[in-house]
Design goal:
single chain, mainly beta, Immunoglobulin-like, four-stranded antiparallel beta sheet, about 0% helix, AMIN-like domain-containing protein, AMIN-like
Length: about 120
């Protein structure tokens, strides 16, 4: 996971590994950061939150490339405050993006290497 500042938007990139990663996801604005599936509150800096769920995660195999789960700060970004790993449940990885405020966003994938990209518009 990494963040970056661009003209007019902040970008969050989720790098994926594997020989043929399945790029499935859904993203929604949520009122509070709650860990899936426990329902416990998550400590995510921000006044608004994007919940990102990446599907098709192979959680059965140990991988040296697997992300360690430490939060990624939005250092130098305008809207993104923090990106935090949530629960991994039934092949779905939850990630919560903290924002300074709710604003427009877009999500798309890029190949070679496989990535899911979230662009968050500056207000």
């Amino acid at each position: 996971m990494r963040t970056g500042l661009h003209a007019g938007y902040d970008r969050v990139v989720l790098d994926l590994s594997g020989e043929e990663p399945v790029l499935g996801w859904f993203v929604s604005v949520v009122d509070e950061a709650v860990e899936d599936p426990s329902g416990l509150p998550m400590d995510v800096e921000g006044a608004a939150f994007l919940q990102v769920v990446v599907r098709g995660i192979d959680w059965t195999t140990d991988s040296p490339e697997r992300y360690d789960g430490d939060p990624v700060t939005g250092a130098g970004t305008e809207v993104v405050t923090e990106v935090v790993h949530g629960g991994l449940f039934e092949g779905q990885q939850q990630i919560v993006v903290g924002l300074t405020e709710e604003t427009a966003f877009r999500v798309f994938s890029l190949p070679d290497p496989a990535r899911i990209v979230i662009d968050v518009q500056h207000p």
